[in-house]
Amino acid sequence: MKPASPARRAVVLAAVCLAALCMPLSFTGPAIAIPAIAADLHGTPLALAWITNAFMLSFGGCLMVAGALADRYGRKRVFLLGMGVFSAAALALAAAPGLVWLDVLRAVQGLGCAMALSSGLAALAQEFDGAARARAFSLIGTAFGVGLAFGPFLAGTLITRTGWRAIFIATAAAGLTALLAAARAMRESRDPQAQGVDWPGALTFTGALSLFTYGLLQAPHKGWGSTASLGLLGGAALLLAVFIRVERRAARPMLDLTLFRLPAFAGVQLLAAAPAFSFVVLLVLLPARFIGIEGYSALEAGRMMIALSAPMLVLPVLAGMAAQRIAPAHICASGLLLAAGGLLWLSTCAPGQPPATLLGPLLLIGCGISLPWGLMDGLAISVVPVERAGMAAGIFNTTRVAGEGLALAIVSALLGTFTVAALGGAGLAGIGAQQAAHAGPFLALGELRHASALLPQAGDAALAQTYGTAFRHLLYVLASITTTSALLILAFLRHPADTMADGTALPRPDVSPQHLKSFQE
């Protein structure tokens, strides 16, 4: 294959960066829009929760399969198909007549994102070599950072001026632009050694993830000990066991479980999931609080979210520079501990306080999580033998995205449970257990008006205070998870030696500053 011209490679890079920008916009934008969607289309708390969860579940559950399909059938073909599916789903979302259609189309949109991300990154690896490849992937990270930092503000502006449907029209336009650019400039490439997709592994993995997510989301409504909850969670556990058995017996498994015998590899997967509990879930929870509980407009909520995400634009690069002198494990653990401190600080900010009091904790959380964010991708491929780097990167991205979806489901369930408990223990006159169970999930979503209509005897101020109590307890849990993750990551990434499944000792994974320097330059 002839080397591509610099101009053609620049167009390919721009197309993949634009696709990468669409993905955080598709996550953060609808999170800002949920209150407006709820006012327009109405619906149960469970249906509203699926607006974000359906996208993340489909995105995370299909990444590895999409990567295998791209290797076999062509990276350009799968990228164009993925962006086409994404853009078509976004246009359909802009015209969705009800929440059921909205939730289904969000899952389709997540599938398109998975196809585009897996194939787009693989295509970039074919277009660029050496330092140019590292710079190209750093621009992908920057595109993600821009989407996270300014997605809420852009969404708030569109909602304020034109309505929530404009968010999906904007992402469709960006997706179609990326598709047209890639169709013109991207060259087709395949893996000549690629074989069939591990469909048994893919189906059992996605099935387990789906049942577990659905079980978590409906548990606050049905009860954790209900037949529905136990059945869904039990079914997820059964499918997970089948998945593990299938992968152990497969000749070419989707997920090589022997890699998890490397402590450093397990530590990197934990590092991939840790930001979900300290940062990603806040991208959904805080807009709901700002708009539904605090009374901010969508635009004001978007502006507040910049304090949380803006450090992503600068600090990951500085962390990469610091990794030339400081052990990456120390940087990652320190960043997570800073984020945990920010979560505890945020827990002291009850609803109704001036917006300025929230800026400090939001900035601290954003700064803390930005430190490991810039090192994670390099660590993902540095902790395994070089011949397994491709699988390691696929597993890492799946862990990150699927972990974000699971974290969102877990945290939503916890906040709903804490809110129901707080309503029952608030001493509000005339609120029975059944009323609390019915109104609590609405209040947890920030639907203060709906909860107030269900509990007219309580009053908005008392309900906001009850929400604040539940949110504070949730932040305690998130801070504990983040602190524990920091300590475990520090221990795993400093492990002196690793052993493969056959007992063969591997040298210490190269997570040295020199390795990361070569990755990032």
Strand order of the largest sheet: 1-2
Order of helices and strands: HHHHHHHHHHHHHHHHHHHEEH
Oligomer: single chain
| Rg | 22 Å
Q: Let me know the largest β-sheet.
A: 2 strands, antiparallel
Which structural class do the helices and strands define?
mainly alpha
Distance linking N and C termini:
26 Å
Total of helices: 20
Low-confidence stretches: 496-521
| Total strands | 2
How much strand? under 5%
What is the general shape? Answer: globular
Q: What portion of residues is helical?
A: over 70%
Compute the average pLDDT. Answer: 83
What is shown here, in short?
By secondary structure, the protein is mainly α. The protein has 20 helices and two strands.
Notes on the protein architecture:
The chain has 521 residues and is an all-alpha fold. Helix content is 78%, strand content 1%. The chain has 20 helices and 2 strands. The protein has helices spanning 6-41, 45-73, 75-94, 99-127, 130-162, 165-185, 199-222, 227-249, 263-280, 282-293, 298-309, 315-322, 328-346, 356-373, 376-382, 389-425, 433-444, 448-454, 460-493, 513-520, and strands spanning 498-499, 505-506. It has a two-stranded antiparallel sheet with strand order 1-2. A hairpin with a 5-residue loop joins strand 1 and strand 2. Helix 2 runs antiparallel to helix 7 (199-222) and helix 5 packs antiparallel against helix 11. The longest helix is centred in the C-terminal third of the chain and has 37 residues, at 389-425. The chain is globular. The two termini are 26 Å apart. Residues 496-521 have low confidence and may be disordered.
